[in-house]
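Morning F.,

Quick status update on the modeling queue. The single chain you submitted on Monday has been processed. Sequence for confirmation:
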Amino acid sequence: MTHSFVVHVPDAELEAEPLDPEQIVSGTPEVTGKVLWESADGKQVRGIWQITPGVVTDTEADELFVVVSGSATIEFEGGPTLTVNPGDMAVLREGDRTTWTVHETLRKVYSINL
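C-alpha cells below.
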C-alpha cells in the first residue's frame, strides 16, 4: 500500500529523461522528471516533469497537468494552440500530436492514465 505524501515541487530533485533526438525541432532542450506514484497495474502515473527552452514534438497520453513554473506554447496538429503559464491546468487527449515551444524552463506536475 502506498502512503500519503507531500512534495515541495519547485525544489524537487529530478532525474535526466533523455529526449529522442527525432523529437527535437530546434534548440537543445533537456528533460528531467520524477515519478512520484504509479498504480499497481502501471496504468496511472503521477509525477513532476521539466523541460528547458527549445522546440519538441510529442504524441500525448491522456494527461492532466498543472504548470508550476515557466511557459510554453503547445500547438496541436489540426487543432488549437495553447499557451501555458504558472498556475495553468491543461488536459491533453491520448493520441494528440503536439509541438511544444518552451519559452522558459517549464516545470509541471502531472497525472497520466495509460
